[in-house]
Design a protein that fits this description.
homodimer; 315 residues; alpha/beta; Arc Repressor Mutant, subunit A; Rossmann fold; 5 strands; DNA-binding
DNA sequence: ACGACTGTGCATGACTATATGCAGCCGCGG
DNA sequence: CCGCGGCTGCATATAGTCATGCACAGTCGT
């Protein structure tokens, strides 16, 4: 270890030196590649922090390691950082002190406070409406990250495409979502049945769909979750339907009665909930369903032709 | 429980087993696509972790908090996570245990081992669905910038609030938007009339609304713009209604027949249009309308009280 | 209305992470 | 050759974090 220490410290010194000289160019370049969760700009900040301090080889090694793992650095313990940098834990503490902090926790706190400042720069300058939009953007971001794995959506699309007829359930606030889905779904699926009314008729309609051959049911479940929806799903499953649910959260009351639950958060910044993410997820589901329906494209083209012939649309 | 290295493998095995068998409620189905680089970003993995476990309200709060701050979560201490989630520190420990881990450090360790795939995986390799979401995020950003000046929205809100009754027009693809708006609007406005069917009845209904005292009409106009909508608006203005329109563009065919046009772009990344921004703008409009209705708050509270009395909503 | 139960926060002991004293290693100058 | 000063890791005292027993509040089913 000790023999290795000297040699590799030397190597690190050279590496750090190179990074230092190219610091200017590297900084501006990173500022451009903003999206990497504060990593780029955070690294730039780090470089600035280190500049002007005469650091020992071990400390340069720590600094270099922090730059490399800029995203994690604000959350690492001194022991972890030491291991990643291949130095002892006390060296990390001394490094923090050398930079002018009261200790390692102070350095870490500083990093945490500086990095996020760039992420949500001045959210308080937005007005009420803009904040609501902003929070919906966050919801969509979250949805995008969930869609990194499209398998659940693809599976849901197949389930829905195979069901003839396809019942689509949405009550109260969610009925608009269900309606929107059903409107488009009808253009590619031969038999979509919109279930947007509760009461005793709901079970009747579920029964009718099953008798007609339905195998799956799509449910839009948004807060505040009507009891009827929970009961409706319970019934639907009891008669053999596979339930695919788009809900505002994986913990919604409908979760227990769903075979496949796709979560999409609602926005609560305004007097009434905004359901951008659920709607978008509905369309994504629709897309997946189209992919599972061989004649979807043909049906769409047929509709376009007829619409044009009838002069249905302006423009 | 103190030893976190040896026991964690066991804990993970149990957690994975639980998630797999639960099958009931799962975004999972990723069993096969598991190897895919960065499969299921951190947030998605988190969701999978939580599913299949019956969580208490406090634990759900913790779970939500972790999902929201998925990037930081793997590095937060139990105290910090507790503060962010607004719960006590022991609750965090119990949460970890409830998920099948041997303690909070085991949970955090698990998160760290799973998460890094996401960071490295290039963010530019969005799949088809994610790209659609991304373009809707852009649309919302644009909407946010438009809302920097809330004057048009406020004016529209006043116009709509003053109209008794308030006709809301939306045909075909837009009928879901109109329906969603009408559903919520009815909770604060005494007489909302949904005009979601075209044909000759449309003019009849506009006439009826005017006779009943309507002074304004709200129209949702999305592509592809049905001729009927254009004609309907033309007629509405001819009988004296002030037309407020939410449209996908300032140059939509309905623009000529609108007194106040609020633009909100639609997403075209999928087979069918996504109307996040128009929907959100509708809710913003609703908010503005509430602000212009003095007794809106009272009506909402009254509804809440009645809903609670009737046990209308679950949870 | 009452008891049983679940869920929650507070208080505290066990434990991990951080800071500091100490000794060995290296390079340099006498 | 020796002594010296700076740098580093080891050992340990201290501070902060985690886990658990306990009491209280809310909910449900008698």
């Amino acid at each position: 270890m000790s023999t290795d220490t000297g040699a590799s410290a030397e190597a690190e010194a050279r590496a750090a030196g190179a990074a230092g000289t190219s610091g200017a160019a590297g900084t501006s370049g990173a500022a451009g590649a903003e999206d990497e969760a504060g990593a780029g700009s955070g690294a730039a900040r780090l470089q600035q922090l280190f500049e002007g301090h005469r650091l020992t080889p071990t400390q340069r090694r720590i600094a270099h390691c922090m730059v490399r793992r800029a995203a994690d650095a604000p959350f690492l313990s001194s022991v972890e950082l030491a291991e990643l940098a291949g130095v002892s834990q006390p060296s990390v503490t001394r490094f923090a002190v050398a930079l002018g902090f009261d200790g390692y926790p102070a350095l870490r706190r500083h990093l945490r406070e500086v990095a996020p400042a760039e992420r949500g720069a001045g959210e308080d300058s937005y007005n009420e409406y803009q904040q609501a939009v902003q929070s919906e953007i966050d919801n969509l971001r979250h949805l995008a990250s969930l869609l990194a794995d499209p398998a659940p959506v693809v599976r849901a699309g197949r389930l829905l495409a195979e069901s003839r007829p396809l019942p689509v359930l949405g009550l109260r606030a969610a009925s608009a979502q269900a309606g929107g889905f059903a409107y488009f779904a009808r253009k590619v699926h031969p038999d979509v049945r919109l279930l947007d009314e509760g009461g005793t008729m709901l079970a009747d309609r579920v029964d009718a769909a099953v008798r007609a051959g339905a195998t799956a049911l799509l449910c839009f479940a948004l807060p505040r979750h009507p009891r009827e929806v929970v009961e409706g799903l319970e019934y639907a499953r009891s008669v053999g339907l596979t339930v695919v649910t788009v809900a505002d959260s994986a913990f919604a009351p409908v979760a227990r009665h769903s075979d496949l639950l796709l979560p999409a958060a609602v926005g609560t910044g305004l007097a009434f909930d905004t359901a951008c993410a659920p709607m978008l997820l509905g369309r994504v589901l629709l897309e997946a369903m189209c992919d599972a329906l061989p004649d979807a494209q043909a049906r769409l083209e047929e509709f376009d032709a007829k619409a044009a012939a009838r002069g249905l649309f302006a423009e």
